[in-house]
Protein backbone atom coordinates (compact mmCIF):
# COMPACT_ATOMS: atom_id res chain seq x y z
CA UNK A 1 0.00 0.00 0.00
CA UNK A 2 2.83 2.41 0.81
CA UNK A 3 4.47 1.80 -2.59
CA UNK A 4 1.31 2.80 -4.42
CA UNK A 5 0.98 6.01 -2.43
CA UNK A 6 4.60 6.91 -3.12
CA UNK A 7 4.21 6.44 -6.88
CA UNK A 8 1.07 8.58 -6.96
CA UNK A 9 2.94 11.35 -5.14
CA UNK A 10 5.71 11.14 -7.73
CA UNK A 11 3.23 11.76 -10.52
CA UNK A 12 2.72 8.17 -11.68
CA UNK A 13 -0.35 8.38 -13.90
CA UNK A 14 -0.66 4.60 -14.30
CA UNK A 15 -3.97 4.32 -12.45
CA UNK A 16 -5.30 1.43 -14.56
CA UNK A 17 -2.14 -0.61 -14.09
CA UNK A 18 -1.47 -0.97 -17.83
CA UNK A 19 1.18 0.82 -19.89
CA UNK A 20 0.86 0.69 -23.69
CA UNK A 21 3.97 1.49 -25.74
CA UNK A 22 4.31 1.89 -29.48
CA UNK A 23 7.47 0.14 -30.74
CA UNK A 24 8.33 -1.02 -34.26
CA UNK A 25 8.68 -4.81 -34.12
CA UNK A 26 9.34 -6.57 -37.44
CA UNK A 27 10.40 -10.06 -36.33
CA UNK A 28 10.52 -12.52 -33.43
CA UNK A 29 14.08 -11.45 -32.64
CA UNK A 30 12.92 -7.86 -32.13
CA UNK A 31 10.11 -9.05 -29.86
CA UNK A 32 12.51 -11.11 -27.72
CA UNK A 33 14.94 -8.19 -27.54
CA UNK A 34 12.20 -5.84 -26.29
CA UNK A 35 11.04 -8.44 -23.77
CA UNK A 36 14.56 -8.96 -22.42
CA UNK A 37 15.16 -5.20 -22.04
CA UNK A 38 11.95 -4.81 -20.06
CA UNK A 39 12.60 -7.85 -17.88
CA UNK A 40 16.06 -6.53 -17.04
CA UNK A 41 14.62 -3.31 -15.59
CA UNK A 42 15.05 -3.28 -11.80
CA UNK A 43 11.90 -1.18 -11.50
CA UNK A 44 9.93 -4.15 -12.78
CA UNK A 45 9.64 -5.80 -9.37
CA UNK A 46 5.97 -4.75 -9.32
CA UNK A 47 5.24 -5.65 -12.95
CA UNK A 48 2.80 -8.51 -13.44
CA UNK A 49 3.60 -9.23 -17.06
CA UNK A 50 4.60 -8.02 -20.52
CA UNK A 51 2.57 -8.69 -23.66
CA UNK A 52 3.97 -7.99 -27.14
CA UNK A 53 1.64 -7.36 -30.08
CA UNK A 54 4.10 -7.56 -32.99
CA UNK A 55 1.36 -7.22 -35.62
CA UNK A 56 0.27 -3.80 -34.33
CA UNK A 57 3.74 -2.82 -33.03
CA UNK A 58 2.56 -2.42 -29.44
CA UNK A 59 3.86 -3.54 -26.05
CA UNK A 60 1.56 -3.83 -23.02
CA UNK A 61 3.19 -3.69 -19.60
CA UNK A 62 1.02 -4.70 -16.65
CA UNK A 63 1.75 -3.36 -13.18
CA UNK A 64 0.05 -0.63 -11.14
CA UNK A 65 3.35 0.53 -9.62
CA UNK A 66 5.33 0.74 -12.87
CA UNK A 67 6.24 4.28 -13.90
CA UNK A 68 5.22 4.84 -17.58
CA UNK A 69 7.92 7.46 -18.24
CA UNK A 70 10.74 5.36 -16.76
CA UNK A 71 9.56 2.24 -18.60
CA UNK A 72 9.40 3.96 -21.99
CA UNK A 73 12.77 5.67 -21.48
CA UNK A 74 14.38 2.41 -20.38
CA UNK A 75 13.20 0.64 -23.54
CA UNK A 76 14.21 3.52 -25.82
CA UNK A 77 17.76 3.72 -24.40
CA UNK A 78 18.38 -0.04 -24.29
CA UNK A 79 16.87 -0.96 -27.66
CA UNK A 80 17.81 2.17 -29.61
CA UNK A 81 14.29 2.19 -31.03
CA UNK A 82 11.74 4.98 -31.12
CA UNK A 83 9.29 4.33 -28.27
CA UNK A 84 5.93 6.10 -28.08
CA UNK A 85 3.99 6.21 -24.82
CA UNK A 86 0.45 5.52 -26.01
CA UNK A 87 -1.20 5.03 -22.63
CA UNK A 88 -1.47 6.49 -20.04
CA UNK A 89 -1.18 10.03 -21.37
CA UNK A 90 -0.16 12.98 -19.22
CA UNK A 91 -1.99 15.54 -21.35
CA UNK A 92 -5.67 16.25 -20.84
CA UNK A 93 -8.16 15.90 -23.69
CA UNK A 94 -8.21 19.63 -24.51
CA UNK A 95 -4.44 19.70 -25.04
CA UNK A 96 -4.60 16.59 -27.22
CA UNK A 97 -7.28 18.18 -29.44
CA UNK A 98 -5.15 21.28 -29.97
CA UNK A 99 -2.04 19.26 -30.80
CA UNK A 100 -1.56 19.22 -34.61
CA UNK A 101 -1.48 15.90 -36.41
CA UNK A 102 2.14 14.86 -37.12
CA UNK A 103 3.08 14.71 -40.79
CA UNK A 104 3.84 11.15 -41.89
CA UNK A 105 6.13 11.01 -44.91
CA UNK A 106 7.83 8.33 -46.98
CA UNK A 107 11.38 9.15 -48.04
CA UNK A 108 13.45 7.25 -50.60
CA UNK A 109 17.18 7.66 -50.00
CA UNK A 110 20.17 6.84 -52.15
CA UNK A 111 22.63 5.02 -49.87
CA UNK A 112 25.48 2.79 -50.98
CA UNK A 113 24.82 -0.69 -49.54
CA UNK A 114 26.71 -3.55 -51.22
CA UNK A 115 25.48 -6.49 -49.09
CA UNK A 116 22.81 -7.65 -46.65
CA UNK A 117 25.09 -6.96 -43.69
CA UNK A 118 25.38 -3.32 -44.79
CA UNK A 119 21.62 -3.16 -45.28
CA UNK A 120 20.97 -4.42 -41.73
CA UNK A 121 23.54 -2.00 -40.33
CA UNK A 122 21.89 0.95 -42.10
CA UNK A 123 18.45 -0.22 -41.04
CA UNK A 124 19.35 -0.50 -37.35
CA UNK A 125 21.03 2.91 -37.49
CA UNK A 126 17.98 4.65 -38.99
CA UNK A 127 15.55 2.94 -36.61
CA UNK A 128 17.32 4.69 -33.72
CA UNK A 129 16.14 8.09 -34.97
CA UNK A 130 13.06 9.46 -33.25
CA UNK A 131 9.99 9.49 -35.49
CA UNK A 132 11.12 6.65 -37.76
CA UNK A 133 8.48 3.92 -38.12
CA UNK A 134 9.70 1.57 -40.87
CA UNK A 135 12.94 1.11 -42.83
CA UNK A 136 13.16 -0.98 -46.01
CA UNK A 137 16.60 -1.25 -47.66
CA UNK A 138 16.96 -2.36 -51.30
CA UNK A 139 20.49 -3.68 -51.88
CA UNK A 140 20.01 -4.07 -55.64
CA UNK A 141 19.06 -0.41 -56.12
CA UNK A 142 21.21 1.03 -53.32
CA UNK A 143 18.06 2.65 -51.96
CA UNK A 144 16.43 2.84 -48.54
CA UNK A 145 12.74 3.69 -48.06
CA UNK A 146 11.96 5.26 -44.69
CA UNK A 147 8.49 5.97 -43.32
CA UNK A 148 7.75 8.12 -40.29
CA UNK A 149 7.27 11.60 -38.84
CA UNK A 150 10.97 12.52 -38.98
CA UNK A 151 12.39 15.50 -40.88
CA UNK A 152 13.92 14.13 -44.14
CA UNK A 153 16.85 16.60 -44.06
CA UNK A 154 17.62 15.74 -40.44
CA UNK A 155 17.39 12.08 -41.39
CA UNK A 156 20.20 12.55 -43.93
CA UNK A 157 22.30 14.31 -41.29
CA UNK A 158 21.55 11.55 -38.78
CA UNK A 159 22.74 8.83 -41.17
CA UNK A 160 25.93 10.80 -41.86
CA UNK A 161 26.73 11.40 -38.19
CA UNK A 162 25.57 8.12 -36.65
CA UNK A 163 26.15 5.72 -39.54
CA UNK A 164 29.07 7.38 -41.30
CA UNK A 165 27.36 7.03 -44.67
CA UNK A 166 26.43 9.51 -47.37
CA UNK A 167 22.71 9.66 -48.10
CA UNK A 168 20.80 11.59 -50.73
CA UNK A 169 17.05 12.21 -50.90
CA UNK A 170 15.60 10.80 -54.15
CA UNK A 171 11.90 11.12 -53.41
CA UNK A 172 9.72 12.49 -50.63
CA UNK A 173 6.00 11.75 -50.30
CA UNK A 174 3.59 13.33 -47.81
CA UNK A 175 1.39 10.38 -46.82
CA UNK A 176 -1.05 12.65 -44.94
CA UNK A 177 -1.93 14.45 -48.19
CA UNK A 178 -2.28 11.15 -50.02
CA UNK A 179 -4.76 9.90 -47.41
CA UNK A 180 -6.80 13.11 -47.74
CA UNK A 181 -6.75 12.84 -51.55
CA UNK A 182 -7.91 9.22 -51.37
CA UNK A 183 -10.76 10.26 -49.06
CA UNK A 184 -11.79 13.02 -51.50
CA UNK A 185 -11.69 10.60 -54.44
CA UNK A 186 -13.93 8.19 -52.55
CA UNK A 187 -16.43 11.00 -51.94
CA UNK A 188 -16.37 11.92 -55.64
CA UNK A 189 -16.89 8.32 -56.71
CA UNK A 190 -19.87 8.04 -54.42
CA UNK A 191 -21.39 11.13 -56.04
CA UNK A 192 -20.68 9.95 -59.58
CA UNK A 193 -22.01 6.46 -59.10
CA UNK A 194 -25.03 7.44 -57.04
CA UNK A 195 -28.38 6.26 -58.51
CA UNK A 196 -29.39 8.53 -61.41
CA UNK A 197 -32.99 9.02 -60.37
CA UNK A 198 -33.69 11.67 -63.02
CA UNK A 199 -31.74 10.29 -66.00
CA UNK A 200 -33.14 9.05 -69.31
CA UNK A 201 -31.63 5.66 -68.61
CA UNK A 202 -33.91 5.20 -65.63
CA UNK A 203 -37.34 4.05 -66.80
CA UNK A 204 -38.86 5.07 -63.48
CA UNK A 205 -37.50 8.62 -63.68
CA UNK A 206 -39.84 11.54 -63.15
CA UNK A 207 -40.83 13.54 -66.22
CA UNK A 208 -42.19 17.07 -66.63
CA UNK A 209 -45.62 17.38 -68.27
The amount of beta strand, in percent, is 15-25%
- Coarse morphology: globular
H and E string: HEHEEHEHEHEEHEH
> What structural class do helix, strand and pairing data support?
alpha+beta
Mind describing the biggest β-sheet? 4 strands, antiparallel
Spatial strand sequence of the major β-sheet: 2-3-1-4
Computed Rg? 24 Å
Organism: Salvia splendens (Scarlet sage)
Main location: membrane
Subcellular location: Membrane
InterPro entries: HIPP4/7/8/17/18/19, HMA_dom, HMA_dom_sf
Write the layout of secondary structure elements.
Elements: H1 2-9, E1 18-23, H2 28-39, E2 49-53, E3 58-62, H3 68-79, E4 83-87, H4 93-98, E5 105-111, H5 116-127, E6 132-138, E7 143-148, H6 152-163, E8 167-174, H7 175-192
Helix pairs in contact: 2-3, 5-6
